[in-house]
Each structure stands twice: as structure tokens, then as C-alpha cells.
Amino acid sequence: MIPPYRHMTVLLVAILLAPPTGAREEIRLESLPEECGPVEIGNRLVYRFLRTERMKLPYRYAEVCTWSGALKFAHASGNQDFLAKLEERFVPVFSTDKDAIPPIGFYRDDFKHYVDFNVFGVLPLTLYQITRNDNYKALGLSYADAQWTLPEGATPGHKAYLEQGLTWQTRFWIDDMYMITALQSEAYRATGDRKYVERAAKEMIAYLDALQRPDGLFYHAPDAPFYWARGNGWVAVGMTELLRNLPADSPCRPRILASYTKMMECLKKYQRTDGLWGQLIDKADIWVETSGSAMFVHAMITGITHGWLDKSRYEDGAVEGWMALIKHLDAEGNMTEVCVGTGKRNDEQFYYDRPRKTGDYHGQVPMLWCACALLEYVNR
């Protein structure tokens, strides 16, 4: 395994001696210093993940997303050692750790967080695309298909959503726009069957129509009218994932692209001088939050790579965001200033007062996504 802190001293010196934001014109996405580059940072994040004990079962979305992100980074960087260890960690779900697998397509009227469990399917589908092991494919598709199959105990409301072509799991919570679209996008990548990505695109448009504000951002929920950073980050990453996978002739693509670019433009306006965004995006007096910030940086880097965003207008912000995020990666490979899991509340002070954690998976995974996006840009 790659030593975790090979460039630690150099990295810390580079960060401490880095010139102020306005003087970084010489640093570009394709010429980041090695100690600040995607391979070095991604290696540290994956190494940290592999040293972290698995969470209580069944697996939930934050751990699943970090695991999948680690796999994608290891594959993109060609790190076979990491790939082997990440797969080895998963294999027991077919034997001794069967209870790790979340229930498929279940519904209880007192427990509605089904998308948080269903996103587990992203993990075996990611593994399948790397290994071509059909057992992984079958497991992952069972979760993707369950989102469009009525479960036992479904309500008339669930049925009504399905009749509209939407998943019965529709809730109009903004984080759904990653949880649903990521799973369906991976199913499309694994099978080539457009039904998966097209139905995810239709779902996305329904959410955009219902939730996107005129300025391009999103309230945490209709009854929580606040621009919570990580909630907006899930939408930004969800749209990015769809745009990476939607065929050029998809009738849904223009609408999603327009909403994505509108959101990026507004985020550009609220990016702080330190390169990051606040826990509430539009509040200048609130603390910096790294998980949402990393999601926005990932979306911007990917947009530049694929030509959805004008490089001349967005590259400086992407570079400044990445360099600022690195400063919040501690010596153990943990991201700092990560908002804990947060349900909606119609109380602005609630968001100001949320605890912050170090090393929370919510902050680890978007940094892995950023590293992957940078590798994709460099290798384009």
C-alpha cells in the first residue's frame, strides 16, 4: 500500500507558504504541484478509508458513497493495491456479512429514508464495471430496479408517482437528486440500457421544476427555506453525474444542462475569498463548510472538463476551491469542518448551530470526487 504521508511535510509547507488567493494565477488545473495534486490527496483519502472500521450494519449512504468514490479513484489512478483491498472489504456481503446488505425495495410508513439504503446498489455496480463480476452486477441492478417497482405496502401516493414515470421513492428532498440519479446512472453504465438514465433524468426534471429557486439554488426543503450547502451539493453532483452519462440526443439533456449552468453561476457569485462556501451559502457570517464546498468544486471541475462551463470564467474558482479544501485535510487524512447529518428544519439558527465533525464520510467522499474530477481533466 502506498505510504499515506509520503509528501506530508512538503504538502504542509506548500499550503502554509501558499500566496493569498489573488496571487495564484500561476496555478492551473493541469499544473497543480504534485503534493497538492489529485493522486497524492486521493491516496491519502483512500488509505484513511481502508483504516476505518466499517459502520454499523446495514450500510448507509455516506459510507457507500465514500467506498464507491475510493474505488473510482483507485481505478482512475491505476492503483491495483487499493482496488484489491477495496474489493476484499466488500466480498463478505455474500457470506458472513449478509446482514450488511440493506433491504431491497422495502417500505414502512414510519421509516421513509429508503433512498439512503437503495443507493447501496451504486457500490456493487461500480465494482462490476471494474471487475466484470456478474454477481456484483446482479446485486446492484436489484436496487436500481426496485426504485421503479412498487413494494409491498405501497400507498396510493407511491402508485401515483410511478404512474407519472417517477420512482415510488419520490420525496422531493434535495439529497434525493444524488441518491436516485447516481444509482440509475451506474445501472446505465453497467448495462447500456437507456431506460435507467432516462428515467433518472425525468426524475431530475421533476425535482428541478418543484425545487429550484429563481437564482438557481435550492432550499433544503419547501418548509425549510434555507440554502444549506451540502443539500445543494447533492443536487450539483447529481446533475453533474447525469450530464456525464446522458446521451447527447436525450430530450431531457437541455433542461438539466440549463439548470446546472444556472446553479454554477449563482455558486460562483457566493464563493468566498478563501475559495469555499458557507454552511448556508448566502450568509456571509456563517462558518465555512467543506462537504458542500467540495461538491461544488467537483461540479465545476467536471463542467470545465466537458465544456459545459467556460474555463476562462470558472477555472480560477475551481483551483482556489481545491487549494482551500486541501488546507482542511488533516495529517490523518480526515476532512475538517464537516457538518454532521442534518434533517430539515424551519429555523435558520438551527443551521448556524449544527455540530462540525472531522473525518465524517460526508466530507471524505466529495474530496475523492474532486480528485477523480481532476484526474479526468488531466487525462482528457
Radius of gyration: 20 Å
> Helix and strand string, N-terminal first?
HHHHHHHHHHHHHHEHEH
**What fraction of residues sit in β-strands?**
under 5%
Number of spatially distinct domains: 1
Pfam families: Glyco_hydro_88
Keywords: Hydrolase
GO molecular function, one term: hydrolase activity
Protein name: Glycosyl hydrolase
Overview of this structure, please?
It comes from Termitidicoccus mucosus. Pfam families: Glyco_hydro_88. One of its GO terms (biological process) is carbohydrate metabolic process. With 380 residues, the protein is mostly helical. The chain has a single domain, classed as Glycosyltransferase (Alpha/alpha barrel), CATH 1.50.10.10. The chain contains 16 helices and 2 strands. A two-stranded antiparallel sheet has the order 1-2. The longest helix has 18 residues. About 2% of the residues have low confidence.
Give a nutshell description of this structure.
Pfam families: Glyco_hydro_88. With 380 residues, the chain is mainly α.
Jot down its keywords.
mainly alpha; 6hp_glycosidase-like_sf; 380 residues; 16 helices; two-stranded antiparallel ribbon; 1% strand
Question: How do the strands and helices of this protein lay out in sequence?
Answer:
Elements (H helix, E strand, L loop, with lengths): L7 H9 L21 H13 L10 H17 L2 H11 L23 H5 L3 H10 L2 H13 L9 H8 L12 H16 L2 H18 L17 H17 L7 H18 L19 H17 L4 H16 L11 E2 L8 H5 L3 E2 L3 H18 L2
Antiparallel strand pairs: 1-2
Helix pairs in contact: 2-3, 2-16, 3-4, 3-6, 3-16, 6-7, 6-9, 7-9, 9-10, 9-11, 10-11, 10-12, 11-12, 11-13, 13-14, 13-16
Protein name: Glycosyl hydrolase
InterPro entries: 6-hairpin_glycosidase_sf, 6hp_glycosidase-like_sf, Glyco_hydro_88, PolySaccharide_Degr_Enz
GO molecular function: hydrolase activity
